[in-house]
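User: Second chain of the day. Same drill as before.
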Amino acid sequence: MEPQINNDEVLASKPQDQKSRLAEFLRGNPQQIITEWVAFARTITPASNGMTRLQLEDHIRELLSFMADDLESAQSDRE
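Assistant: Same format as last time:
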């Protein structure tokens, strides 16, 4: 089941709230994101030709966690 997103709520929320919601989404839906990533990665040929699912998933969990942590960390004006 795909999570429902209310676009009006997202657009009306503050940028930090949007970052928190995205971080929450990344942490709460890793398998769905990974499944979509693998499906997308398989379309990148010839790079994905012959790659196993494990190879296509390599480091994606760590990347999702890193992105969620970064979204929740303090950001400078430049960032």
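The first helix runs from residue 7 to 12.

User: Great, on to the next one.
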